[in-house]
Structure formats: structure tokens, C-alpha cells
Amino acid sequence: MLAEKALDLIRELQRTLSGTLSPYNEDKIRQVLEEMQNLYDQNRDRAHYAAGQADVFAAIQLRHAAIQRNKRCLLAYLYNRLEQIRKMRWEFGSVLPSDVRYNMCEQEVQWFTQYNRQLANYMKTIGESGGLDLTQDMKPPKTLYVLVRCIMDHGEFETQDGNIILLKKNSQHYLLRSECEHLIRQGILEHLVH
Amino acid sequence: MAAYSVPAGVCTNYFNIDDILASQEKVPCVFNAKVAALGYLDQSTTDVDLNVGTKLELPFWLARFLQKGARNIVTVDTPKTYKEGYRNIFTADPNVVDLHRLGPFFYLFGGKLLTLQLPDAEEIADVLLKTFQGRFRKIMDGSQNALHADLTSQTSVLDDQERHLFAAGQDSLHGFHRWEKRETEKLSTSVMVANHRKRKRIGAMPTAS
Amino acid sequence: MLIKDFRRDFYDVLQHQRVLILVAFDVDALCACKILQYLFQCDQVLYTVVPVNGLQGVENAFLENAEGIKHVILINCGASVDIVELLQPEDNVRFYICDSHRPVDIHNYYNAVQVKLLMRGEELSVPSYDEVFRDDESSESDTENDDPELGGKKKRFDDEAILRRQERRRWKENRVKLLFDYTKFTSFGTSAALVMFELAWKLSKDTNNLLWLAIVGVTDQQIHYRTPREKYMEDVLALQVHVSRHNQRGDDDENLLSVNCLRVSFEEELHLSLYRHWSLFDSICHSTSVACKLKLWSLKGQKKLHEFLAEMGLPLAQCKQQYSAMESTLKSEVKEKMQTFMHKYGLEIQDIILPSFTMQYGYKSVLCAADHVMMCAALLESIDKSKMLTDYFLDGTEVLQRSNQEKMDSGVDAAKHQLRSMVKQIQSFIDMHQIISAGPFLYVFIQEGAADSRFFSHPQCLIRLARFTLEAHCNVTRNKRARILPLILGAPLMNEEGSTLVVGIPPLDTDDERKNFFGKAFEQAAESTNTSAKFNSFESHVIEMKSEDKSKFFDAMIGLLQ
């Protein structure tokens, strides 16, 4: 059937869970592009003598539909991956886990770097003094400081005032909320509320 | 949140995955015109061309394209699950039907069918609405009241959109409970990160053992 | 140095500073730590809490976290060692020690710059400064070094020098004697939690919640045989004043506390372990005093208990079901009836009644302080192998959080499990006649690989087992001297094969002084036999040693105590 391979790409997207990125399926994409090229070549060859021949004309239209369909699937594949990568910027922070990065294609890596840069530049320009970190305070903060517990060994962490804190598994710390919110979101610290 | 997302199936979005998948559902078609050199689409014949009167199940996107307006290359028939026989079942008791098996994009695809100018379009629209109305109470009941129970038996018969609805209900229920227990102020690990870590652990296990 | 004004010299100093808190693994320390955390959170003092297990733990935690830290608080650890000597800190680091272990090391006591002691001064009887330190020591030793040369040159005796030397020798002898007397017994002072609560009170930041933590801390000292009964009663009376201050608001309806508030009340509690969360029958069987007096591990004892229950008019079926499901008329009579009939069965009032406190929160069932201690202690010394030591600590912290019902339940289960294996262990001690008299003391060892021995590789649990064992033994043995003999109990260590955890407890007759001489005795025995014992624990009467050194070590102990 026509445009089956492109649909496989979409199904692949559907199966992907949040928090992961499936490997960039370069092979499949090449196959889809080949199919499109084929359909296009056939249409071009026949376009010369299609005039007046209803059956040839119908075939051209049918192939054209398939080309459009393939295009839609390919674009949707790329677009949804970018969306996922963009979400990851907000969830994981500016450095993505290595397995995610490994699954990105070169253009995606480029896009991510640029997105990162633009976001940083934008955040620098807003706010009164020296910018505003938009990735902070995703929930309205209730306290200035929070009590956190370390879930995993993370090594040393330097606070804004220059102190160094050792984040060792199961140690408890009372820290500035703004400093540890990222670490909480990344699952290194657990926020203790009582 | 910065991420921009389309509620599945509410509007037809060019990039929407569900929409693409729903438009892949098959529709029975009869060819009104001969189509040259595409006989290979019909696996039951060895003819080079697709002849007039060929009956073929085509994906919705293709069927709609070929049927549209002056083109009129195919005539489209109502798919089986939307025909009168099934419609009667839905009207009798919508709650017993396994829409996931019949769908899983029952409503989304049904809505798309309406654009095909089928003779029974009105009945189809009617039955879509009635089915949803009939099933909605049960979905809401289930999603708003089961806090920790295993819900797979209930959700497995739901259509894709119904599942989204169900998940939204569950979300609000859990949110309410967290609010009651004053947990909303608690900062938590992002869901994405947690999933990622879980996957990694599962992936790492076979090599470790 | 002792701090007089906690607020001025301790709390105010820490404002806007980063603080490192090192906490020992006991319930009292946990409670004290939670009170302190609350205070610091009120005033936004940044802190780091690190649980420490043993002196080695203190050293490691300090090394890892000391960077940039100028203030270190030690809770229930560190007082009995020279902390400056142990940690070699930089000159600007200050230690604040809130520790109930006694005696306090004299170096800590007389270090006016780096060490601040948060404890009640009147409880310490430290030798006076002049008796243990001499300021002229350096010049003295100088002259001493010079002396022979001088003597060699001038060949004449300096009467003055001789006199000085004699005086110095006397002083030295006196010093050794004083220090020996001072460190001979280890004991416990006021609970750290109570000290912290009083600080909170002085800061006007005390709440019912903090009060409950202080109560749990004080009760922990009673449950783990740390303080004499009079001391406990004294603390209870002090706490009672706070309890009535926080929980009584006049009798009219308007002033009643909402059911959603924590309510604490003073009560003459039945001294039975966990009975509110168990069946009455099981609870009696697992409570030290009653179980020992009635010899409940034997068939005869069981019969006696049945008799006792029958006489009180409590149907067996009722006693063996969950206490919470017992008929309420019976429940209300239990305490009174036990007191009426106890004398016939040789029970005393303090075996059955413990003046204590209970708390209630919402519509949940009442929880008494002793049970809370047991739950917390059981989680602190859990045997769950999948968790790390620090996980136990966090579990313990969470169980003190009254709103965490799930943890509470798991705490109850853990405590029951611990008690059951304790009773089983004692039964096997008694049945197999494993408790052996070595002359000046009794000893018993848990076999390696014995069921549930994992519980007893933790010190607090082992101490409770030792006490239970000694009491049980005194009640069955025909040896009249048993009551004046101390007991040494050894258990295999869970994590290190071939090692034994050894604890010594004083004899029952002098038990209520809660003074333990084993710390010094162990030290001397290890020294004289060259045993590589580890004195890692904050309690010096708990040591670790290689199992093969046991007999050698014990011979030395016998020689020492005779």
C-alpha cells in the first residue's frame, strides 16, 4: 500500500514514552523519500501525455495524494521530535542525558543548541537586573528556603554565596529554594514538606 | 509551561499524530473511473490497471482525496462499524461495546467520515453523540472515584479520546487529593526525568544480572 | 566550655551562618534534631543534617562536609571524646555539643574557645581545672630537662627543685586518680531533646509538636535504661508543666482545642509494650517486667497469666484479639484491675504503671510516648538489607512525623517483630541454659546464624535484650548472687563476619543508678590482652571485637573484675 513506511514513523512516535527519545530513524526516512521520488518521477513522465486520458490523469492524482501523505507524515515526525526535544530542555535543563543526545540527529543537535542559546539570551534581556530565569519557580513559591533530602550521590554543589555543600545520599539540607529547585526537578533532591 | 500541545482530536492539526493515525483507517470504496498502471494496489487481480467497479478498502486520506468534488474517482461506502447493524448495538447499550477494539479512534474517525457526504451521515453523527453521552457517565464515575484501584479492565475498552478524558479525570482527582493533603507545595521530580530514569533502570537490568 | 545562656551564646551566634548538624543514631538525638531543625527553619538558618554512626562516622562526616563550615552541632555524640583532638579542625571552627552521654571529656569542658557544651552544668561533676591542668607545665618541664645538666655541672642538690618535683609527682598521682574516678562510670544526663525543647521555650517558639518530641526523647532514656527512675520522674514533672500550659484552655466549650490539633495529655500509662496496637495478651507476653516476673516463656508462666487474666475477669478471647477491638467496658477496667490483683502475682506497681504521656491527633487512635519510642527505635535499627544505614535514619525521622500514617504502621510492625524475636531469643537462652556465670559476671553469646540474630547486631536493641535477659535470668536462677552480677552479652555482627558486638550492663541490684563501669573495664581488658577491639560506639560499654579474641578477652575480664 502507499505511504505505509511513513506511517511506521508515526507509529514509532506514538510508542515513544515521555522522557525518552527514540533513535532518529534515518533509514526509514530515506526509504520514504525514495518512495516519494519514485512517485514523483512516474507522475512527471506521464504528465506529458495525460491530457485527455482520464485513467492516466486519475493515476497521477492518486500518486499525488500519496506524495502529500508522505510529506505530512515526514514533517509530523520531525516536528513532534522537535517538540519533545524542546520539552526536554525545560524538564532536564540545558544539558540532556547522554542517551537522549545519542538518539538525536545532527540537525536536531544544532537546533537544540540554538534553542538553548536563544532561550538564554531571552532570559537575559527580561527582568530588571540581569535577567530572569524562566525555568525557575514553576510552581508559585511558598517559602524562601526548603528542606531537601538527597536521593543520590551527586558530589559537591556550590551555592550562590560560594559555600560548597556535599550532596551525599540521604543527607538533609536546608537550602535556598531557588538554588535547589533544578536539582529537585532533576530528581537529585527530594523536597520534604511538613 | 512553554510547550504547546494540541488536545488530541479536538482540531485537525497537520502535525497531530492521532489525526494522522485516525486518517489511516480504512473505508470501502468502489472505483468510478479507470486508473492507469496502479493495479498493484488491488491484490486480488493481476491487471495492470484499476478497472471501473473495483472494490477496494482505501485509507481515509486517499478515499477522501479521490472522492472529493469534481474528481469523483471513487464512491465511498460507510465502514462496517458505522453501519446500521452496529449503530443499533450502540444505541441499545453503548456501555458494553469495546470501542478500543473497534476504534481505537472511534470518535475521531467517525467525525472524519462525516466529511465524506455519506447518505447516512446524519445517523452516524447522531450515533456518535449518543454513544458518547451514554458512555460518558461511566467514564466520569470511574475516573473521579477510583483513587488507587487497578483500572486497566475499565480503560481497556475505551476509545483513544475517552482514554484522554479518563486520564484528565484521574489527574484532577489526584490533584485534589494532593491539595487536601497539602502536598501541592511540594516540589517534585519532573515526570519526564522520572520516566527517563525508570527506563534507564529497566534497560540496565539485563546487563547487570 | 559550658554555655550558660543558650540563647545568647548559641542560638544568636548561629544566625545567618551555615551549620552542620551531626546526629547520633538514637531516638533522643532524632527528637532533639527535629526540634532544632524547626527552630532553624523559623529563622532561616541554613543547615545540613548528617546522621553519624560511631566515632568513625563523626570523623568521616566532618571531613566530607567541613568545607566552609564554621559551626558544627553534635547531638548525642562527641561529648566523651576530645573532639578537637579527634577532628583536628581549623581554628575558627566551633563545636556545639548537646550530648546526654556522661562523663564529658575534660578537654571539651575546659576548651573555652572551640567547644561549647549545651547541657545542664549542675549535672556534671568535673574535677576542678587546677587539679587536672597546670598552666606552668611547660616551664616545669623545661626546668626538669635542665635539671640533670645543672646537677651534672654544679653537683649539688637543689632543695627547692626536689620539693617542686615531689609536689609535682603528688599532683600527677592525684590527677590520675581523679581522672580515673571521673571516668570510671559512664551514665547519662538530661535528654538532648529536653535541652533543645527548653531552648525553644526560652525563644518562645515552643509548640505542642516540639513538646511531644521532647517527651519522646525523655521516654527514650527510660526505655533504653539510660536514666534512673527519679531522674525520669523529675523530667516528667517538668514536662507536665509544659503539657498543661499547652493543652488546657479552660473548660468552656469555646476554648476547647479543635480535634484537628495535636493533643498531649499526662497519663498513668500501663507499662505494656504497644498494647494499643496489639492484643493485650501478646503485649503482656512481650513486656519486660511482667514477662520476667511471670516467666511467660514457660508453660507454667502461661498458665499463670491465664489465671491472672481470669481473675481480672478478662475473657481470653477478648485479650487475644486486637486491643482496639476489645469491648470498651473491659478496656476501661484493665488498668484498675491489674493494679488490684497484681500483688498476688508478685508484680509491683512500677512493673505495670509508667507515668507518661499520650497524644492524639484527629480521630486517629491514641499513641503513647513509649510506643512511639519503640516504633522509632525499631525503624532506626531495622534489619531491612535493601536499605542503607542512612535510610534507617530517615525512616526514623519520618515516623516521628505524626501525620505520616503509613510510616507509623510500618513502625508498629517493625517494633512487634523486634519484640517477638527478643522474647524468642530469651526463651532459647533460658531453655538451653546458655547464660553462664564466669564468677564476677554473667555472660551469654548469641550463636552466629541464629534466627533473628540480625536484630541484635544493633546496639540499642542489644542493650534492651541484655536487660531483658538479665531480668529473666534473675527470676529463674536459684543462684542468689545473680542480682549482684553484671551481664555481658555478645551478638554476631550482621555486616562483618567473624565480628561480635559486645555489650555490658550493670547488675540488677545497683541497676537503678544507671551507672555502667564496663566502658573502663572493656578498655583495660582490651589493653592488657592486646585485643583489637573497636571502641567506635558513643556508648563505651558497647564494643566490637573479633570473635576469635573472645576467650582471651574474657579471661582478662575475669581477672579484672575479681
Automatic annotation (TrEMBL), chain A:
Residues 142-193 form the DNA replication complex GINS protein PSF1 C-terminal domain. Its main location: nucleus. SUPFAM superfamilies: GINS helical bundle-like. It is found in: Nucleus. Keywords: DNA replication, Nucleus. Pfam families: PSF1_C, Sld5. It comes from the Eukaryota. Residues 48-126 form the GINS subunit domain. Signal peptide: none annotated. The keyword Signal does not apply. Component of the GINS complex. Required for correct functioning of the GINS complex, a complex that plays an essential role in the initiation of DNA replication, and progression of DNA replication forks. GINS complex seems to bind preferentially to single-stranded DNA. This is DNA replication complex GINS protein PSF1.
UniProtKB/TrEMBL annotation, chain B:
CDD domains: GINS_A_psf3, GINS_B_Psf3. It is found in: Nucleus. Gene3D superfamilies: 1.20.58.2050. Keywords: DNA replication, Nucleus. Its main location: nucleus. InterPro entries: GINS_A, GINS_bundle-like_dom_sf, GINS_Psf3, GINS_Psf3_sf, PSF3_N. Residues 15-66 form the DNA replication complex GINS protein PSF3 N-terminal domain. Residues 82-180 form the GINS subunit domain. SUPFAM superfamilies: GINS helical bundle-like (SSF158573), PriA/YqbF domain (SSF160059). Component of the GINS complex. Belongs to the GINS3/PSF3 family. The GINS complex plays an essential role in the initiation of DNA replication. This is DNA replication complex GINS protein PSF3. It comes from Aplysia californica.
Automatic annotation (TrEMBL), chain C:
This is Cell division control protein 45 homolog isoform X1. InterPro entries: CDC45 (IPR003874). Belongs to the CDC45 family. Coiled coil: none annotated. It comes from Aplysia californica (California sea hare). It comes from the Eukaryota. The keyword Kinase does not apply. Residues 132-153 are annotated as: Disordered. Keywords: Cell cycle, Cell division, DNA replication, Nucleus. GO terms for biological process: cell division. Residues 137-149 have a biased composition (Acidic residues). It is found in: Nucleus. Transmembrane segments: none annotated.
